[in-house]
Amino acid sequence: xxxxxxxxxxxxxxxxxxxxxxAPEQVDLIIRGGTIYTGSDAPFVGDVAISGxxxxxxxxxxxxxxxxxxxxxxxxxxxxxxxxHTHVGDxxxxxxxxxxxxxxxxxxxxTTAFIGNDGGGSPDVAKVLGTARTRPVGIxxxxxxxxGAIRERVIGEGDRAPTDAELRRMRALxxxxxxxxxxxxxxxxxxxxxxxxxxxxxxxxxxEAGIRGGVxxxxxxxxxxxxxxxxxxxxxxxxxxxxGGLPAHISHIKALGVDVQGQAPAIIAKIEAARARGQNxxxxxxxWSASGTSLVASLIPLWAQDGGRPALLKRxxxxxxxxxxxxxxxxxxxxxxxAAKLLIVQGKYANRRLDDVARELRQDPVSAxxxxxxxxxxxxxxxxxxxxDIAAFMRQPWVMTSSDASxxxxxxxxxxxxxxxxxxxxxxxxxxxxxxxxxxxxxADTFGLDGRGRLKPGGYADVVVFDPKRYAERxxxxxxxxxxxxxxxxxxxxxxxxxxGQLTRRAVGRALKHRPTPGTCQ
Length: 522
Ligand SMILES: [Zn+2]
Prior knowledge:
This protein is 35% helix and 20% strand. The protein binds zinc ion.
């Protein structure tokens, strides 16, 4: 068995002849003696050799010399992590060079992020990808064409179906975006005006992405019990994938709120059934039980938000509306699991739960929320998922790691490190190998990233070296911007972006252009 193992490992070392012993080849960088997870093989102790922006060899011992050797004994060496759902597009295009490095990601070993999720991605994909030429970035990125951006451009904010001409224009925009290198079509059917679209309209657009090799990436219509319900929203995503003829990917999969908590097994069964029928259905997930929102957005009924804050404050003082407003808020608070599940993270009551604030004010939680909103609308963290559901989704081999990175929530600074620390080390929900493969190779394969997501000869040299004893998030709900610890080195396109645990400030990321199916673009 040992011999077979050695032969298999030797085969990974590319371009080495077993016979003659030529003078040792010189490479740029060798990461020596770490425990290597290639993204698809069982782990082994060995070396990774890098030349230029590519991996030259991976194996138990690579007999090269190098300009720089990193001693990785005791460390884990893995493909740089790929985050398929983020909101860092603005940071990547920022005028500030430090912001464009995305330190929060690099310090977790994330070397590639997708942007344009939730339907927000501009269809002008050439422009989005072109920005990196004049504004160098710290990580690689790729983008989706966003259904919301396309629908707004063609139809506006209106709650109506498109005309035939409008549908043709929207389809043409998807086709153009795909031909410029989009990963696929993203939607956020939960959000207006995307929520005004019926399933058929989305299918028509998704088909344009599918023809060209894209993926349908969806923040589904309802992750909770607000409109159609979680189960029907999952069914819709599967339908769009099937009828659109393309892989369907569910963004940040979850069962949000008390009405749907515990539904993870049923949702998993639906997706497994679609996969058993031959459909490609996948999902990503962030490893946190809370989402981030504001106190108004979490509790105030939509009708009462119409007209913005001035109108809302007037309604607070209107006795004729008091009953209806209170009833709506009581129902929303129930869906979110009660006042103890809302943590205010901003302003006068920062880092206190709503039940605690209510006790201090000697008011019921709804009255207390109104009192707080009268001062300002603070950001809140809403604990609305069960750990059982999180673990059930996480165990599925088609669920990959994501952050959904956006401000005011520790997921920006800590998602990958937390998943390792909490769900691999502390709770054994995943093995280390599963965590790594579902944070790299699975994501690259699902979205068709050429030459990324694995440590293999000829592939791009995106690599993370981390200390298995120390790798952890420090960001918390109370202090969401603390950088993760335990990442020793990060290589992006062959260049050290993190060295000795410190950012090198080298902006060596690239805009990744997805290659459309040959013959589908002029
Ligand atoms: Zn989303």
